[in-house]
Amino acid sequence: MDTLELLRINLLSPAVLAFALGIVATLVKSDLRIPEALYTTLSIYLLLAIGLKGGTALATTPFSEVWKPALATLLLSVLTPLLSYAALRRLGRFDAVNAAAIAAHYGSVSAVTFIAAITYMQAAQQPVEGFLPTLVAILEVPAIIIALLIARRSLGGGSLSEAVQEILAGKSILLLVGGSLIGFLSGPDGLKQVAPVFVDPFRGVLVLFLLELGMVAAKRLRDLRTVGGFLIGFGIAMPIVQGSLGVWLGSLAGMSVGGAMVLGTMAASASYIAAPAAVRIALPQANPSYYLTASLGITFPFNLTLGIPIYYALSRWLHGGS
Q1: pLDDT over 70 at 93, yes or no
Q2: What distance in Å separates the CA atoms of residue 117 and residue 66, rounded to the nearest whole number?
Q3: pTM given for the model
Q4: Nearest-10 Cα torsion for 18, 203, 300, 31
Q5: What's the rounded Cα separation, in Å, for the pair 136 and 95?
Q6: 264 falls in which pLDDT band (50, 70, 90)?
Q7: Contacts with 292 (C-beta within 8 Å, 6 or more apart), sequence order
Q8: Nearest in space to 134 (alpha carbons), one of 51, 247, 253
Q9: What is residue 67's predicted lDDT score, i.e. its pLDDT?
Q10: CA 226 to CA 104: how far, in whole Å?
Q11: Residue 71: how many CB atoms within 10 A of its CB?
């Protein structure tokens, strides 16, 4: 299956089409609404399901296969916020606070983009490493801390310890790490017991979740005029740079075509759950229109439609076209 065919399949997948439907619903001012309680339930389900499956896979994976990808992920967690910060300060002329706030989002991970990458690999019938959810947790936290440390060094102020606590106690990390631990301890037999709930309905739930995210992203699209041309370009160019770096490091760490592609997608994604919560506490003076519009209104739809196939094509090329 060539790259263009996979791109077509990705754009016409139920998840991406549901995301587009959510955008249309908001633009035409439809009365369609996903209840807040249901949205919260769907996000809890998706994160816990990922953790369970990742922990189960980790239980059967030798340490010798994990340590190199984990090291590559740690390296990414340091490099990606520094790259974003440098680009925003030197090229975009952003002040230190807003540059650090945006860098925290681009160093962190979008769990939904990660899920979309996994689903894309399943559609392409490309196997991936089962321990990938563990790498999400490794990438998420250090990147945000580094970005906030940069801001504190420049300006001082803000409670870093409170922000770190917010990240670790936030539902995205708690569910991913907790689900992984449950999956690791219960093993394949444990996962088999809950498969009718946490494995089989997964893709259907993802479609509902992306319908809601489409509506949320459409509201952010209205802010594009206020964030400026540079940030729009940054929201597209930086994911390609960081995604390429992630794919390359994943390949060097010995990951498969699919695994390196998913690691690249993680590096390319921008957080809109954990990072906003942390930035809100540590950098209250940062402008939310910048970091939320860039991460949710620009980078998320780009990765969902074009970015993921690009990272996959790059991973295949680095692996010799396999």
Answers
A1: yes
A2: 20
A3: 0.81
A4: 30
A5: 29
A6: very high
A7: 220, 223, 272, 276
A8: 51
A9: 92
A10: 20
A11: 13
